[in-house]
Every structure is written in C-alpha cells, then in structure tokens.
Specification:
This protein is mainly alpha-helical. It has a domain of 39 residues. The chain has four helices and no strands. Helix 1 packs across helix 2 and helix 2 packs across helix 3. The radius of gyration is 14 Å and the shape is globular. The N and C termini lie far apart (39 Å). The mean pLDDT is 87.
Amino acid sequence: MTASSKSLSVNRRSHQSEGLELLEAAIAQLWSTYDEDEPRTAPTKGQVLDFLSSLGATGNMAKAIDLILRPNTLRYAGRPKSR
C-alpha cells in the first residue's frame, strides 16, 4: 500500500525536530501557493535549497526536504518552462 492510496493521519505535536521545523517553514513559504493543476506554481529546486540554506539547513538536509515535498510528477519531469 502506498501513501497515496491511504490517507495518513499524523499528530504533528507528538514529535518535533529541527528538520520538521525546516520542512514546515518550506511548506508555508514556498509550497502554500502550489496548484497541482498548474505545475509552474511549484518552486524550483534551487529556490527550495536556497531558502532552506538561508535558515541554516545543511545541503543534505535541504535536498532531503526538497525530495519529500516535491510531487513525483515534478521530481523527474521538472517544472514546465515559462513562456
């Protein structure tokens, strides 16, 4: 069973870490306006890495958070080029 085939319920207050704080900051700052029907609204990988780095994330942490947050459809095909 994949995560997409089952709704996961997570109590966010049961555990906190620096990595989770960075992840939540990236969601709020970069992904809150993402529209899956309009892939151009997704932040670029560079934008995500730069933002997380500015908050003190290591390169590996920033890449891991980007991997977690980026939908599979954008992970391999990339974001469509602006016209």
